[in-house]
Amino acid sequence: MVKSVLDKYYQKGWLKYGSGDISAEERLCAGYAFYKSYVQSHVLSVGVVDLEKPAVDGGMRNNPIERKMGLKDVFLKAYREIPKNCRQIIEIVVLQNNTVDVCKKDFPLLMAMLCKALDRLVHYYLTSEKADEK
């Protein structure tokens, strides 16, 4: 199984540069949740729903386009939580699954920015879960 770049950074202990109240595991999970949200938010191909055909289960028909738009909105809300100066790093590492080429002296800054972005995602996902519970 191929490991993601974020998982490799976690294995090397590089996700410990952020806030002290958030663990490296939480940052890793937030990165995976963000990537999953990104993948689900894409409207790739949505079939046409035949509204004249009766529903077999008797339930309500969900419009797949509306569902995808809702997922896109969830992704964009999470994306807006990331500080603007950290968005490019998240895009490269989490969404594109690539490493960032920097010299050794800039590497601590890169990891701090990545962890800061992941910290904001952790807070976003935790607060959205609490809002869903209410």
Could you list the spans in which at least 5 consecutive residues all have pLDDT below 50? none
User: What is the count of structural domains?
Assistant: 1
Q: What gross morphology would you assign?
A: elongated
Distance separating the two termini: 38 Å
Summarize the structure.
The chain is mostly helical. The chain is 58% helix and 0% strand. It has 5 helices and no strands.
List keywords for this structure.
single chain, mainly alpha, 0% strand
Topology:
Blueprint: H1 5-11, H2 24-40, H3 64-81, H4 87-95, H5 107-133
Helix pairs in contact: 2-3, 2-5
What does this structure look like?
- The protein has about 130 residues and is mostly helical.
- Helices cover about 60% and strands about 0% of the residues.
- The termini are far apart.
- About 20% of the residues are buried.
